[in-house]
Design the sequence.
């Protein structure tokens, strides 16, 4: 996703869209108000921004979620305090999440533009999608699950239905499947990666079990529509995925600009 | 570079190091202060940040620099105003700067840990370095120039000598050379990519001419020491470089986490 | 107004509500994560914030508005550039706007909780209100005009109708009246001080003429309901008003916590 | 203090000086880049800021400090979590700290421009100062203690000696004295109000005991030199002090622009 001041949050939230502002501009140069380099017309522009690290396309750090007062690798949850995460922060992944990526275009396989908001993607659907795409998931892969949800929200301008609302996605039943295949990271084109509500005894089981007990790195708000179109065209659903997070020290998540290379 | 609150700016500046702060923590979960999911011990962490977009490793947008009241593609400089860049912003590069990368380890070739701060890297030195490395620069490549400067600054903790101070790098004489080879982007392990001072009639000619008239994308504060060590070991100085900027809408620069893949 | 992350902006805007976040907490102390003072249980909390300077109750600086490329005192408008205001900034008022204040409770005088959104407060209404309140406006006074609008918006939760929407207030016809009486500053309980739309050849004439040509300091989003209730009770509509803006250097506006003292 | 991007923090710190940036400027108006009001030359300027709430002149909230896992009024410290303070926040003082103020110009009484950095102001010195000034402290007063420290730091440009360094001020022995007189709030022209180091078994006893057990509101980085000069001239060291904090919801401190009115 572009880092945009207007979306995805369209109402006040604990998540802040990127708020960019300027400290030097070309209009200043035109108006004769910048003398940076001693020559009229020669100048520069500079900007700053405030944003939530998980405001748009991002990876959750393994420090993002807790269960039973623990985070990944049996670390106590309080190691994430007001100074940040002293373990499992996003910066430990600074040169990771670069490797084989596989797209499972579930929406495409089911022949819809987007899955309905209450659609729980089952393991059977996932397997059928991969089989139809003639691609397999291997150990260490990054699996991208396309629901079509983000694209639909954008087309319809329905952003208020996007944040902490019902959404299609994988559910708790896919955790053993992901574990058995040794998937390193998963991402989807929705808000919280997983189906919501969870229809499970635990809210957000992909977070609580996947992040905390399996060390599964979750990616959210990935734009997958253009990638899916490309894969449909050439029939190749595996690629080199380069998606290292920005290494904010001590952060519990970070924006990323993921790129699929064929 | 890691996105770090303490460096590279160590004094107040128009550039702000990333200032991260928390809106949800594991310490809150431990202290019984988070009831996000209705189950004690089950919770999450979230953070936000304020930073200058060019505070650490970044690409300059083609809207970052002006000469003679113009920016790239003969656009008037005032198209970069207090709302941001309406042309040549960083987000037009959202899926670019992914391709063949070549490292020119000038410091390594000259047998020093880091070039002196007044070292102007000449075209002859650049060519000798590439020849000794048995690598050639091709059209569309991204050229990474290693001066060793950033590594030296970090080793010595000499950050106050890093910002807008003398630094080694390429100078104006390399512009025709870059143009002739069709280099798409260049980056270095220093503050402003180019040698400072410029020893030319124009301050920052790589910016003023390279960005404005040639559309050369400049990268600054790239960490190249580990990459150079790897290239020395396997003798391969060309690689797949994946370095798309974070697509902040309308921004005049953006942080990047560049990855070399062999 | 309290500085609140949720209001008055309820949609993305060029104005940002205060976004507060923590860098040290008591939950950290409880969880044993803060060792600031070498004694368990002894610690501190600290926070930071990002906000637009005109997000809530504030004074406009004389650098906030331009007409015919000029700002107050015939200064060229470009003296407000991306570095801020080099003339007429809010910090020149750091020890000002402390003096006699007068409340004109127009809504109260007209016997309504709040004026309708299309109500243009005329000079006749203003004079009738002051006469009924047995109070006069003197040279150098700060005049507070109560429309009831902000209170109504809050009661109804109608914040989306508050920002850049129709609102009751004074109009251009009151400018000569304010000038003749030597009023130093004016404020109201609405978004932009003045009636919107202006029903005048110029949009926002109180800003364009009042700020630029008269040097009138405008205050917006002042909470006046409690003050009005107090004035009704004791019949005294004049008081000592202490309302110096926070002196942000170079700023074009600043938050204020205005206090009426009787 | 003016809210200044350059001071008091001159090195990276957990406290951030105000970082102001622009979202609309007069230079844009001049360059024809703002069409806000449909008339060339008619426009506005707007800015935003990121800052620590205790970066400059401020009041500590009663939620700012903890001792023995408690804060004021026997509240558990974890009520200050990553969402802010749910008790004792600064916004409960939104219309407070307006009343009789008394200046104790200790530096002036001792005939020095500024007290040395290791000067512990004793109760005897405080009483001698007040006696010499012919002023008494009464119940509910706000006591301002002038050490001259902030003025000296500014004159000498010695800001690196200002943050968490030795400083002159009151010490723990003055707590019973303040309690006996019913002082409501105290402030000084130094960084942390009190003498540092504390020469007591507890670090920062004015915070740990004064805030936590006495509910004493502490003010820091108050500019008192101009006020002292005025008091010396007219011999009146008591005045109306208007110093309500900016009411940031849930904050543990807030900037203030304090005004003494005679």
Sequence:
């Amino acid at each position: 996703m572009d880092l945009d001041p207007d979306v995805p949050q369209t109402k006040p939230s604990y998540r802040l869209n990127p708020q960019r502002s300027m400290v030097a501009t070309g209009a200043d140069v035109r108006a004769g108000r910048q003398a940076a380099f001693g020559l009229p017309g020669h100048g520069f522009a500079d900007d700053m921004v405030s944003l939530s690290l998980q405001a748009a396309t991002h990876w959750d750090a393994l420090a993002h979620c807790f269960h039973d007062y623990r985070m990944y690798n049996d670390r106590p949850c309080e190691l994430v305090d007001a100074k940040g995460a002293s373990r499992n922060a996003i910066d430990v992944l600074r040169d990771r999440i670069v490797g084989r990526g596989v797209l499972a275009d579930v929406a495409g396989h089911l022949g819809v533009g987007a899955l309905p908001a209450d659609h729980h993607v089952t393991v059977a659907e996932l397997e059928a999608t991969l089989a139809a795409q003639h691609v397999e998931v291997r150990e260490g892969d990054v699996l991208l699950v396309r629901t079509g949800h983000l694209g639909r929200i954008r087309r319809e301008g329905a952003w208020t239905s996007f944040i902490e609302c019902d959404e299609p996605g994988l559910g708790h039943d896919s955790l053993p499947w992901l574990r058995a295949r040794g998937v390193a990271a998963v991402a989807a084109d929705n808000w919280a990666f997983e189906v919501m509500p969870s229809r499970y005894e635990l809210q957000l089981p992909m977070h609580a079990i996947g992040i905390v007990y399996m060390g599964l790195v979750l990616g959210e708000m990935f734009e997958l529509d253009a990638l899916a179109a490309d894969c449909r065209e050439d029939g190749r659903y595996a690629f080199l995925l380069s998606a290292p997070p920005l290494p904010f020290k001590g952060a519990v998540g970070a924006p990323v600009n993921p790129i699929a290379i064929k």
Q: What stands out?
A: Chain D touches chain B through 26 residues (CB under 8 Å).
